[in-house]
Amino acid sequence: MKKERREVELFEKEAKLVWFGQDKSILDRLDRYILPFQTVESLAVERPKGQSDLWHEMYQREETDWRNRLIWGDNLYVLASLLKEFQGKVDLIYIDPPFATGADFSLRVKVNGEKLEKLPSAIEMKAFNDTWSGGMASYSQWIYDRMIILRELLAEGGAIYVHLDWRTSCYVKVILDEIFGDINYNNCIVWKASSGERGVKGGMKRFIRNKHEILFYSKGRPKTFNVGYSEYAESTLKMYKYDDNDGRGPYRLQITRNYSEKKIRELKEENRIVIDEGGKIYLKQYLFDKEGVALTEIWTDIPPVRKGDNEYLNYNTQKPEKLLERIIRASSNPGDLVLDAFCGSGTTCAVAEKLGRRWIGIDIGRFAIHTTRKRI
Fold this sequence. Notes:
Helices cover 27% and strands 22% of the residues. It has 376 residues and is an alpha/beta fold.
C-alpha cells in the first residue's frame, strides 16, 4: 500500500537524536522569549510605475499595507515574538545556520560602491559561545529550539530549506525528521559549492570536500512546487540535428513505442512522423517541446560567488543569487511570504524582493542587517 503523507505529531517518531542537556519543552517556555519589539524602520514594497494592476495581482492579500521586515536580534526571541502575527502564515523558509566553522566576526565588504568594515560584536560572540560551548550537544539544542518555532510559523504545505555542510548535516537531518516527520522529507539537495582546487594538499587521506547539503522539508504535502529546468548539455543539443525549417526548430528522431494507430495518424497530420525505408516509425521530438532538463537534487550548474562577480560583497558566508532564485521560484509564488532567520549578507531578501515575494529577514549581527539594507 502506498505510504500516504500525514501530519506527524511532535515527539512521536521512533528514531530520535539524544544529546547531553536535552530539553524539548521550548513550546512551554515561549512566554519568556516573547519580547515587545519596536519597529525602527519598515521597508515598503514599491509599486513600479504603470504596473499597478499587475502588482495588485501579484499581491492578492488582505495585507494591502504590507511592509517587508528586516529585524536585528537573536532569532529565537524574534521568531517567538512573530508567532502572534505570523503563526501558520509563512509560505517558504530558507535558513543558512552556522556550520561550526570558527568564530571570526571581522568583515570588510563593499555594497553599492560603499566600503563597510565590521569589527567583532560582543552580542555575536556571546551567541557563538552559547551555540558551541557544549560542542554538538549545545548546537543540537540551539537548532532544535529554532526549528520547533519555525515549524509553527510555517503554513500548511509550506516549505523549509535548511542549508548545511558536512559538519552538521547528519545531525540536523535526524532533528528535522523528528520535528517535521520523515514522510515530509522531500530532498537532500547537493550543491557543488566550490571547485575543490584549493583543498588539494600533499598527503591527503580523504576526498576533497566541495559540497553543501540543503535539506528540503515541508509541513505536510507541499502546496507549491514549480518544476525547475537547467539548460541542455552540449552533447544533448548535438542530438537535435534535424530541422525542417518550418519554424518549429531542431528535432531528433525517436522510435515510437506503444502508440495506437489513431495516435500515429494524428501525429502524421501534424508532420511529426518519419518512416524509414525499412518501415520503422519515428517521432520527431523537438528541442523546444521542453524548457530544458528537469532539475535533479544534484546542482552543479550554480557556481559560488567569486571575487569579481557583480554580486560579490566579500561576505564569507554569501550565497549566490541564482541559488536562492532557484529555491524561491520552486517553492513559492509571487506574493507569498518568505522568511530567512539567518539573513547574513541579505541574498534571500534581495532575491525575494526581485521576484515579487514578501519577506522577513532576521540576523543577530547589526552589520548583517546594515549590509542587507544597503543591498536592497
